[in-house]
Amino acid sequence: MSETLKNGSMINTTPVPVMVAGCAIIITRxxxxxxxxxxxxxxxxxxxxxxxxxxxDSTLIFIASQLIFLFxxxxxxxxxxxxxxxxxxxxxxxxxxxIYMLMASVGWIYPEIFSIPGESNAQIIHHTLLQKLPEVLVxxxxxxxxxxxxxxxxx
Length: 155
Fold this sequence. Notes:
Blueprint: H1 2-7, H2 16-52, H3 56-80, H4 84-106, H5 121-131, H6 133-143, H7 146-153
């Protein structure tokens, strides 16, 4: 054990912005699920899952949302280990989610499970972009600091 500590193999070399971004992804995703479950309660949560399973398109969107959730968590863990694929995977999921939310909110895609209400398209786009502001900040932590860029370039 003392040899391991002397050699420094236990010391984490992940830059702080990358660790903060990875932890933020994990924490915000898990907290959002817990807050949603708390807000809806067990009966309403079961009703939501039941309603989502009524039609094929709702079921596919519900399953896709769960897969994106799990993929985002996987990306967070892999990017903290230095995988550039994790960083770009997170970017890809954010693009897919943003496009779906905008299209569903404007009414171009049905069903509108994850849509944002609004009176006009401009208001819908504004609310959607405001909801995505934390993800933009996480992406800035992954791409802007020199330590983050060097960390992913060396891997």
